[in-house]
Every structure is written in structure tokens, then in C-alpha cells.
Fold these 2 entries.
Entry 1:
Amino acid sequence: MFKFFKWLFSRKKPLLEYQEQVSSPDGRVVLNTMLKNGQIFYAVYKDGKVLVRDSHLGLNLRGDDPLYNGLMLVRKMDRTMDDTWETMVGEDRMIRNNYNEVALYLSESGGKKRLFTMRFRVFNDGVAFRYEIPPQPEFQRLVVADELTEFRVDTNGYAWHIPAYQPDRYEYNYERSPVYELINSVHTPLTIETPAGYVISLHEAALYNYGSMTVRLNQNDALVSDITPLSDGAKAYVELPFNTPWRVVMIGDTALGLTTNRMILNLNDPPKDDFSWVKPLKFMGIWWAMYVGEWTWAEGPRHGATTEHAKEYIDACKRLGIGGLLVEGWNNGWTGDWLKNGPTNDFTHPVEGFDMEKVASYASKNGIELVGHHETVGYVDNYEKQLEAAYQYYANYNIHYVKPGYAGAWMTIQGRKEYHHSQVGVLHYQKALELASKYQIMLDVHEPIKGTGLERTWPNLLTREGARGQEYEGGALSPSHATILPFTRLLSGGMDYTSGIFDVTNGTKRIATTIARQLAYYVTIYSGMQMAADRPRFYEEVNPEAYQFIRDVPVNWDKTVPILGQIGQYYIVARKDRDSEDWYVGGVTNEEGHRVRLNLDFLGDGIYEAQIYRDSDDAHFRENQLAIEIESRKVGKMDNLDLWMAPGGGFAVRLKKV
Ligand code: NOJ
């Protein structure tokens, strides 16, 4: 540490005023960093147009002076990175990490002369920065009272937002309004259509040991970070050295351009251990039957998780070509009002009618992976007491996938009510993830912390929920929702949307969809674990020909090519399978129908068999949901496909290399 201080101060004279521009590798994005009157600012430009005007940086500390004023620059370091790395599971096999970096080493000129570093990275598609605070003789720990990071965007831009600090966490419908109306905090990714024409998204990467960032407008008309507080109002208690998560401004020339932004993954570290055991999965579940009221989570005459049902579903997985089966309601703790049973849930004891030994051995005999389930109802105290034993229990039965859930408005941690997204919530999710990796368990986290790219470092974090998914259907979701997600929530990583409902006309959970659209989701909504969420009999009875697409579609992709998209209107994407030469295309539209001429120039050379699943001309998400046309024809990369997406509908195409 002494060497570090010596090096830091080995330059001639600290600078009181300073300004420097750092460009992206392609020169189009420019970051301007400034030290003015002892305060530090940044601004972001693209093609000479300002996207973020001079914005303040700093931290308010509890019981200490803010790290904000009286700053001088003692050193600066530049660096360029150009690296291409391979994902284990993802939307693209290869990802390029290319940026120019500047690190500004700052010191207070008076008082305690505390030090911190602002590290900035400028990518071709955005800017990221974080605060890094080294331990110092009289500065070993701190309590963040407020992070003062501003994002001074044009407030006339239109933001797509969901509210923060609400009981259903991230599960809200997106609204579009001018930035100047964002007086109440909203979650990130916060996607903004700027008056300059670019579409940007504010988010964070590598969220560890800190409250999650929400943003709101301050009195100076700037969006400012609002870190989710702990129950005592503090934002984070940290020991030094400490780095905040990266603050990220993703920039797209268009909304569609934003959808393949990989900054969030790039700002995370490569894995430190061997994760070669991680495998993506398609799975069914003893699950939707509970949602439609056919079965129950709790024991009783209609209990879902019985040994019998599990065996039947395992047989169905085999018939339907699905690799995994989730079983919910298998353990002690569901009886009565399960939302109130969190403090007593038991994760190592099955209920009487469920013989884990028999089910696990039947699954393995049939080559089906069981997906375990832990519903914590947010009672982290109860869960953490059992966590290791709970994973060990599954590992003993050779179960390598778990879906944990944190339903409820709060987490209970050390007897206190805390936000899921507070520092202690973040610490819990991390502890669970790391412990899962020790038992070679992959996770599909429901009611999760939002994605900040940790799956690069922890590839066993295969997917998460973290937005309204299909379980909200039955009136709570409009068709536009799935045309907004790719430009907002999905910028933070994959989502378990629980796709593939064929019983779309069900009286209890009627779904605003056509059947073709259910197929499209497997392509439009990336997830390292994809659920075929309906009951097997609906796949076999409603439309087995349409089901073929769910059987064929892969989970892991080699390459993703966005085709067409307008936020809230429609979204079309093509993805190449990681294990074959085949391509898949999915499209979804809002309440309006949309006709597209799909240009196939993304294909390789040669002939492909296009297996097309599209809405019939008279299909509709309300009246005629099951009307689908399925056809097959030979195509090449010079061809087009004319496709109709009915109101609330969509299409799916498999392009099989001949
Ligand atoms: C909410 C989850 O999102 C859902 O998938 C699960 O079935 C219930 N909690 C019960 O655990």
C-alpha cells in the first residue's frame, strides 16, 4: 500500500483544474472528464451531439465529510482493451470487449486528504465508470449516505420505466413518459429515446455488496442515482478497498441497436473457477396447473407435487423432448397461506405424498434433470439457516438446477424488513449463488435482484425472472409488454418468461396472445433456462404440429442478429443455434397487426428449409388465438419471407440447413 501512495504522488504537482476527452475506439463516442472548482464532472457525446451534459460525481458519507469537494488530480492512467471472449451460455458465443479507459486518481486538497479513483471506460456503444476507494491510514471503512452520480440527459427525452420501491419489485407494466416527469424513483435499465435520435439506457454492472441503483429527477433537473436504502436509511456499509458497481450509459443509434449491447457482461470479470458443468436447459413444470387452479401447491386432494404426477410429467418430458422438470410444492411449508409461511419453510423434507428418492431415480433413469424449488417468501433468515443443507440435499439426489423464489414485498434479514434490492438483499443473492456453484447447482432466480452481468463470472446463474412474466396474464399483461422487454429489462440479461402456454383460452388465466406468438418467445426472450410452461396434455392435444417448434428450438445461441424493432410496437430477431448451422427467427407485435417482409440475408450460403409458424390472417389475441398456419419451403439468403403478425400475435421460423 505504501508503494501505491508513493507512486501516486510521484508526479510533480497535483492539478486543481483539469479537462480531458477520451474517445471510443471508433471515435464516435466521446467522454469529457473535468475537474472544476475542486469538483469532478463527466459528459458524454456521440457524433458530436451531447447525450449527457456535465454531470456531478461524488458520495455523501454518514458520519464523515462528503467525497465531493476540494478535489485535485494527483495522477491519471490511460489504457486500451481489445479482447474477445467466449460465453458458456448466451445470446452470442463470442463477445468483443473493446474500450479506452482513463483512471483519475483524486485527492482532497485539505482536510483528511482522502483519496479515491474515478475509472471511466469508453466503448463504441457507451460509457461506464465507477468509484474506487483504497484503504487509507485514517480511512478504512465508510457508510454511504447517498451516491451523488448524475446523468444529466435531455429531460425532453422519453423514458420507458417501471417504478422503484413497490411491493411487486420489478413486476410492473412499463410506462413511457418524458424524463422531466420522473420525480419518483424508477428502476434501471432505464431506456430513453433522446431528442438527438439515439436511444440510450442507464444501468449498472457488477452489483456486489451495495444497494441497487434506481434513478430519479433532482431539483436541478438531472437524473440522479438513488441507491436502495437499508432499513436504517444507509445505502451501504463497506470496508475499504471498495469499488462501487459500474454506472453505465449504453448508447444505440437506434432502439434495435441497443438490444445487442454487451457492455454489462464486459464490465464483469471472467469466471475464476471451472464452470464446465454448466448446461442450459429446457424444462417443464408441475407449475402452471397450480396457476390455473387445477392443482395446488399445498397438500390436499388436488396437490400437484405427488410422486405419481412427477412420474407422469417425467414420461411427458421424454415424449415431448424436454430435458428437465421443475416440481413446486414438494416440501413442507405450503399448507395454509403459503405467503405467510416463510419463517417455517423446510427445504430438506418432502411432504408425505412426494417420495424424492423415487422421483429422482425415475428422472435419472429416464435422462431427465429435476429442477428443484425453494420458495423462501423472502424469509432470508430462515433460508440462510438451511441453505447449505438445502443444496446438499439436492446434490445428494443428483439435482443440479434450482429455482429459488422470494415472493413478497420484503425480505426478512436479521429480523428486519429490507428491500430485495438493498445491500443486504444483494449480499444474500450473492451468497446463494456462490454456494450453489460449490454444489454445481445452476439457478433460475425468481423475484431476483436485477441482472448486472454477474453471469459472466458465475455462469451457473442461468436465468432469472425480474419482470412481469406470463404468470401475470389473465388481464394484467397487454401484448405490447413483450415488445418493450427487449429494449428495457432484457438489456440486463436473460429472463424466465415461462413461455409456451397453449391453453390460451383458459377461463382463469386467459392469455393475451396467439399460439404462434407463444413459439416466438423462445427466440425473442433469451433465457439460459427456457420453460415449456404448460401442462403436457395441451401440447399433445391442442396443436402437436405447433409444438414441434418448442421441441426443436435451442436454448443456447451462437449469434444474435436483431432484424426490426420499435419499442412497444414490434420486435423481430434472428439467432443462430450454437450446435448446428440452423437459424431461428422470432417476431412479436403489440395490439396492432404488423406485416413484415423478412430478408434472409443473415443466412449462410446454401439451401435452408424454412419451417414457418405464423398467425392465420384472421388470428387475434382476443378472439381467434389458436389460428396458425404452419408451412415449410426451401429458401436461401437471397430470399424474403412475407409474414403476418396478427394483433397480439407473432411468428416463429426455423431455418434448417439442408
Ligand atoms: C412466484 C414465482 O414467480 C412463481 O414462479 C412461483 O410459482 C411462486 N412464486 C411460488 O413459489
Entry 2:
Amino acid sequence: MKITVLSGGVGGARFTRGLRELADAQITVIANTGDDMWLHGVRVCPDLDTLMYTLGGAVHEEQGWGRRDESRRVSDDLQAYGLGWEWFTLGDLDLATHLARTELLRDGLPLSQVTARLAERWQPGVTLLPMTDDEVETHVVVADGRTMHFEEWWVRHRAALPATRFVQTHVETARPAPGVLEAIAHADVVVIPPSNPVVSVGTILAVPGIRDALRATPAPVVGISPVIGGAPVRGMADACLAAIGVETTARAVAEHYGRRPDGILDAWLVDRRDSDAVPALEAAGFVARAVDTLMTDVPTTARIATDALALVGR
Ligand code: FO1
């Protein structure tokens, strides 16, 4: 069964690791690249790397990003030169990934081909596609007028600075990467995992053509709520939702995504703690169900994925 997933970093990667357990699942992941940045002259792609490391079995599990058994000799020495950010450092092994990516980009390969080449080593068991081969970065406009890269807002300021909006630089001229629109059009099912709906999934949807492809695909589109009991499971999606005026509830996120054909969803899986939202979601035309959606381990995540696919008859 051809399954296409639109994913950010940690939440989407963990969900996909469970989805991969399903028999005959042929998965294509369309990854957010809005967190990407140039740092010390190398191109860093946090969500692509979190997906690649998590599905390749190399991720630092507790952190959810970066490599297991990491060291920091290079970043410590860079600090000695007064270069870089002390709040966002690259591990030594992680640096090899960024050096490899940068070398291949400099050789003229588009990001999608670079990603395929890096994935050959890690064998993630899915096809990993950046949302676009063009450089698009999420910048945050803060209430005091400053604009900063998403990672500075997210990591340095822990999303504590009230944001007024998120800007994806140059996204108007960005084109979906090769294979992205086909992966949506030819899927048997499309899944919106519990990634950050604003800066991860929202950024993917900002690439011209992707939202329309979701509206038009014959495949059913099912999402899993990233909000349980009024709070994001991990990360600070509530700060992002507040910035765009969306309540941090399972129901509000579904309504933010919208029901097809105006929106992008047919069905929405919520946690038991939000089962009271199901009748309202059904009244709004969504197929909805409440199950345990906390991704505590891989088998549990596989069961959640099964529940999500079952919701749309797959
Ligand atoms: N997150 C942190 O909280 N601190 C870091 O120093 C940090 C470094 C880092 C380096 C490479 C990379 O791919 C990710 C890194 N992250 C770090 C995580 C990053 O903020 C997240 O992966 C996403 O971009 C946000 O969901």
C-alpha cells in the first residue's frame, strides 16, 4: 500500500517509524525543510536529518534529534574562535552529514538527490523527499519587531517570545521537489502525522501546489492530532498555534487544517482524552475517532498508524 506522509522532525519521524511496521507499507515522506540553515558554511537540514537518523536507527532517542554517541570536540573548538551559536551546536558525527550534504550540493546535486544519496547509507526503509529543492527558511516575526530564524526562536528563546507571524522566505517561487506531487496524487492514503501543524506541516503546505494536490488527490487524507488534552505532546506547538490565533485543542487543529475539498483532511484521529471533540468533528463533516494516540513505543505507534488507516478504510 502506497502511503505518503507529510512530516516535520521528531513527532513525524517517530510516527513513521511505527507506520513502517505495517505489512506491505511503501512509504514516501515529504519533509519540512523550513528549519534548514547555513551554519559554519555547511547546510543543516534538521527535519530531514531527524527522519533519516530516526528511521536509520542512529538517532539520539531521548533528544529525538542528532546522533547517538555524539561528541562536541569541533563545536567546542569553534566556540574558542567565537564562531557559531552556543545555543545551537553541531555534534562531530552530525557534522559529517552536513559536510557530505554540502559537498554534494556544491557538486551541483539538488537537495532531493543529495537526500537520496545520504539515505543510501542509512537505509531508512522509506523514500525521503524534501518538500522543495529550493532554499526556503522559516523566519519568525516577534512582537517587538525583530525577525529571526525559526531555530533561534525555537532553541535560544524556547518559543517564549510572542510571535506575530511566521514567514517562509522565497516560498512563493519554490517548486515541489521531484516526486512530491506524484507521491500525493498516486498514494493509496495520505497521512498528516502529529508534527507541528504550523511550522512543520504548515510550511510544507506553503509550497505552491502542495495544498492543491492534497485537495485533489483521490487518496483519503487522515491526520493524527499533535495536541492531547489541550497541550502539545512534545515541543512548543502551542506557542506556534497561539501566534496564528488557533486554539491548542485537537478540534481546533483539525478545523485549522480544514475538511476537503476546501481544507486538506478527510479524517482526524484524536486521543481518548479528547473524545468529547468527536461529535463536533463529525458534525463538521470529518470522520473522527478517539483512541490512545501517545506514541510510547514502536508497537504502540504501529497500532496508532493502523487505527489512522482504518479510519479511512485502508
Ligand atoms: N535543538 C536544540 O535544542 N539544541 C541544539 O543545539 C540543536 C542542534 C541541532 C543541530 C542539528 C540538527 O539537525 C538539529 C538540532 N537541534 C537542536 C534540534 C532542532 O531544533 C529540531 O530538530 C528542529 O529543527 C525543531 O523541531
